[in-house]
Write a structure and sequence with these properties.
Radius of gyration: 24 Å
Number of helices: 16
Structural class: mainly alpha
Strand content: under 5%
Number of strands: 0
Helix content: over 70%
Distance between the termini: 98 Å
Largest sheet: none
Order of helices and strands: HHHHHHHHHHHHHHHH
Number of domains: 1
Length: 420
């Protein structure tokens, strides 16, 4: 049984708090498209995702080992360093959740850990080769690979289903969406829950509670899985709205293609031990699916804000982590100041979020500001030159289609009395 100091206990609790924010921040990765297309009810979707996140946490420890043994030098790390890293990651997660931007919790954690480590032990304590090969390169490759795969899968799906019965086809694709969403949730557990396992294990090594190069203890795996599952069940509704409605309008065929492509990329990266961002993978696949359907477009203004957030994640979390590490260097009172700052900032962000509540009752509302924004130049041009979906309009040879008011419209239209 590990022996715990007070600072080590604080680090473990803070790590589980980060895991909780990771859960509700990244729920959108698995369930946004399923909810937005109506394949599942919102609360049922997040409950299923939470269970599968917990199951996925037990399937592998490769990513956890990448963080606990590979990214930074264990010998130069103190528990206070890891605490400072988690402060940077948590605050970035909460800020991006407040504005509804699907940024990477993984990169927030990496950035906080890198910044705090450099502030404590210098640049040499960060293993640059691991950072490049297992963090930065996958960050660039994941959305591209997932996006291209989703675009091709979407086109293939529409091509194969062009002669199928419309209602039966949509019903089948919705069932496929549920299955693929479950696969993404499982993949999320195998990748993101392990990151917290790796951080806690690194803290245990730094605090002398376990031997260097140890795998995560079973209680670490269980607690990390439960924390991310609970966060997932609460649902990050703001980010679900952006991912499901803000980037593009998805049909069941597109949702199925997007989720299947993303799950494949995430599971492959978990097997290889890459600390991949599930947010990058799913966002890329959603955009690829949007471009894969004839007449489908991507809201590039929303995508641009998301790309900016991606680029800022590592340096912003690193800066906060480094500042937090500097303050903790003053001793116990410095650690207490950082802890109070974290709690106060988190409470302030939560209070701000209450001004406009987004939950399961309004997550699919069409009055989303992201959807109301004017179309950008790229979107307008693509919509002008891309033909609509098959069966959407009549051809020129068929002649114009007459338009008649519906019965409901006719009943609502007042009749003007005829003069006599």
């Amino acid at each position: 049984m590990e022996s715990f100091s007070l600072i080590l206990a604080i680090v473990v609790v803070t790590a589980l708090a980060f895991d909780f924010t990771n859960g509700f921040h990244d729920t959108a990765n698995a369930m946004a498209t399923t909810i937005s297309t109506g394949a599942m009810r919102p609360k049922v979707a997040v409950a299923m995702s939470a269970v599968l996140n917990l199951v996925g946490a037990f399937l592998s420890v490769e990513v956890a080992n990448t963080i606990s043994k590979g990214l930074v030098d264990e010998a130069g790390i103190r528990p206070e360093v890891i605490f400072a890293a988690l402060v940077g990651a948590i605050l970035w997660n909460l800020l991006t959740w407040l504005v509804g931007l699907p940024s990477s919790s993984s990169h927030a954690l990496m950035g906080g850990l890198i910044g705090a480590t450099i502030a404590s032990a210098g640049v040499g304590a960060v293993h640059g080769d691991v950072l490049v090969t297992k963090v930065l390169l996958p960050a660039i490759a994941a959305p591209l690979v997932a996006g291209i795969a989703a675009m091709l899968a979407t086109r293939l799906t529409y091509s194969l289903g062009s002669k199928a019965d419309g209602k039966a086809s949509k019903k089948g694709y919705r069932a496929g969406q549920i299955a693929s969403a479950g696969l993404v949730s499982l993949a999320h557990g195998t990748n993101d829950a392990q990151k917290t396992m790796g951080v806690i294990t690194l803290a245990l090594v730094a605090g002398g509670a376990v031997a260097p190069d140890s795998d995560p203890p079973m209680w670490v795996i269980l607690s990390a899985g439960l924390a991310i599952a609970l966060g997932t069940y609460l649902g990050g509704w703001r980010i679900i709205r952006t991912m499901g409605k803000g980037l593009t309008d998805l049909q069941p065929q597109q949702g199925f293609a997007a989720q299947t492509s993303a799950a494949t990329v995430i599971l492959a990266s978990s097997h290889l031990g890459f600390s991949l961002s599930t947010t990058h993978s799913v966002s890329g696949s959603v955009m690829g699916a949007g471009l894969g359907r004839k007449g489908g477009v991507v809201r590039w203004s929303t995508a641009t804000r998301m790309f900016v957030a991606w680029g800022l994640t590592l340096p912003a979390a690193a800066l906060v982590g480094a500042l937090a590490e500097y303050v903790t260097g003053f001793g116990s009172w410095g650690t207490a100041v950082v802890a109070i700052f974290l709690v106060a900032s988190s409470a302030a962000i939560w209070k701000l979020s209450r001004r406009e509540v987004v939950d399961h009752t309004n997550v699919c509302d069409t009055e989303d500001p992201a959807e109301a924004e004017p179309a950008g130049v790229v979107t307008t041009a693509m919509a002008a030159v891309t033909p609509p979906p098959a069966g959407g309009t009549a051809t020129a040879s068929e002649g114009p289609v007459p338009s008649f008011p519906s019965q409901a419209t006719a009943e609502r239209t007042p009749t003007t009395p005829t003069a006599v």
